[in-house]
UniProtKB/TrEMBL annotation:
Pfam families on file: DUF1631
Protein name in the entry: Uncharacterized protein DUF1631
Stretches for region Disordered: 236-263
Biased composition (Pro residues): 242-257
Organism: Tahibacter aquaticus
Amino acid sequence: MRPMSANDNNPKVVDLNQRSAAASLGEKPAEALAQVRIHALKRLTALATTLFENADDALFDLASKADNNAVQAQYFDGMREVRKKRQQIEARFQEQLARQFVDFAAGRGIVAKPENSNGELSLSLVENTELEESLAVASMVAKTENRLQRVLFAINQRLSHISNQRVEDTNSPVGPAAVGQAFRLASGELEVELAVRLIIYKLFDRYVMGGLDQFYDELNALLVHAGVLPQMRATVARRPGSPAPPPSRPGEAPPSIPGLEQAEGANSYVPVDAVAAELQANLYSSLRSLLATRRGEGSPDGSGASYVPATYNPNVMPLNPSELLSALSMLQNQNFSAQSAAESAQVALRVKEELLGQAGKLRGENGANVSNADEDTIDLVGMLFEYILQDRNLPAQMQAMLGRLQIPFLKVALLDKHLFARRTHPARVLLDSLAQACVGWSEESDRDHRLYDKVREIVESVLKDFEDDLGIFDRLRVDFEAFADTNKRRAELAEQRASEATRGREKLTDARRTAAREITLRIENRNMPDMIRNLLSRPWANYLVLVLLRQGDSSDEWRHALRFADELVWSVQPKHNAAERERLTAVLPQLEKTLRHGLATVAFDETDVRRLMLQLNVLYQALLQPAAPTAVTEVPMLELTDPLPPPSQDGGDTVMSSIAEEEPPALPVESLDERWVIAVRELKVGTWIEFLDDQGAKERAKLSWISPISSKYLFVNRKGLKVADRTLVQLASDLAEGRITVLEEVPLFDRALDAIVERLKSTHAAKMAPVAAAAPAS
């Protein structure tokens, strides 16, 4: 990772590559605190540098819009004073931060207010100036502490651990209060009007206080890797009167830590995943490098000409942040009021052109251009939404809906560079939540338009209400996730019923197959009366199914039921001697008892039972005669007015016929390409699939359950209703023929960034290929 330069506007994740060396710092408090001090001075000074790099533009913009010459002169004087004192203020800011670490180590608190070096001013003027400054600093500190209370809580606990003192926001050397007071002391060097001083504080709030999110994440990651409370998951009490912070994500309710106070309604802090944060920062760094390369690589002939946008006008001053945001706000209002969902794809391609045109109109000039950094941001957001509008994971209607967020997200990216560097950025989390909910959407599964209308409501709220308050994204996320959780619970109940019903059918089918197999083994190719064959293949097979479902195949009831079938088959065979007839006489009472119990279990009609017993009585009387016939089929049967029907007359109710009606066997797995079989076997429960039928209609469904009996895959829609069940072979065949598509599980923003990096790399390689081919061989 390259070192951070003083002029680098983009936050970087602290270098944690030397984990093994840092791991022991948790046992060396002084060294751990020194690491914190070094990183804090470097990062906070860099944020202050960003402030001053933007101060000129802000003051110039205010001067150009001043109502009179006196006010304009104030701002121009302020510009000159800031330029003159900038280095002194940056040096003193760093010095004050360093001194606060010394005071912290010694147990002293933060300096409450700056020293007064303007003795010649009147007491009332000094008090008024100090009051205004104090209010400005107190306001930005309170706002930042409320916004970042969870991550601050973690830092305070870790600093307490290494300093052997109770650390709170008021005495932390890196807390918002410490940073704010250090700048207040440092900015005392400025000799400017109060109005200009307050403008500087507003810029400080935006560029320094607004950049503390990433800085605190880095500090927590640094301390985690140093072994300081690496597994901490603690609650933090909410300040009286402060707004409730965002709730923890599902499944993140942490156990309490002994010795830490908890409060009702407390929220959890989950330690930063430092490895993931560094990977994300590296990805963003790669993106910026590729974009910068695009500007510098020029034409394919190797001339080195700089990348120049089509609308670039070298005679026009680049747009400052205020002008960009004003132009975007106007476009955003137009987008909200006039754009239909179907127009989203076209808007993504012309946002840059429209933005520069709108900004030129605001200036009253014929054209406009932007700085390299802002142009990269505009292009990056454009590529993000181009990806969204082509993402196969999203249905076309939802692509168009989310595509309408391009201009608000461009504003977010210009206001806060963390959008592409932090997975936890509120705007990014909201977009990922919307996209995840939309993956399973289809018109068929959303006939009441409940999800579609909610997504549209969220999108239109952003378009209508978002100016520069990033908190709106967190508020909308909380609202949407509450809606999604309610619908998810409903879907889970329906899904549970669908899987239970399928599981029951699977068990029944398996039990029927087992019972049919056992009966077939006993009656196939055996000479016996049709009545006995009918008895075993119909009511007794049903009894076997019930025993299997209730007691299983290892139960005594199952063994007794099979033994009865064996005894019954033996009992109707011709009896050739007295011993066989004596044995038949002995077993008949038990056979009758078992038969009556089995028939009662399957609710066999009592009248039919009596008729059956009469028929059996005639049959066995004949078998017990010494001169019994040798062929059982020749035994005379009792003539009944309503005999039991043969299987062919009522076959639909029999186990045997139900097996015969099963679907023909599928192709063997060996006949398919192994890669498709492997792909199906790697599917996990929760994976979304898009099915394509013969008419070209598409339906999205989630893999809900894989049968341990038949290995069938059950799919449900977003409401939990069954869509299909497929065997492994069917799914592999459908995959091979393109009738199903497996949708990706990676969050939308991450997928988009990966795709953009690959796109930029491919473009760069394609442009450089002719140059490499034309270069002389060495």
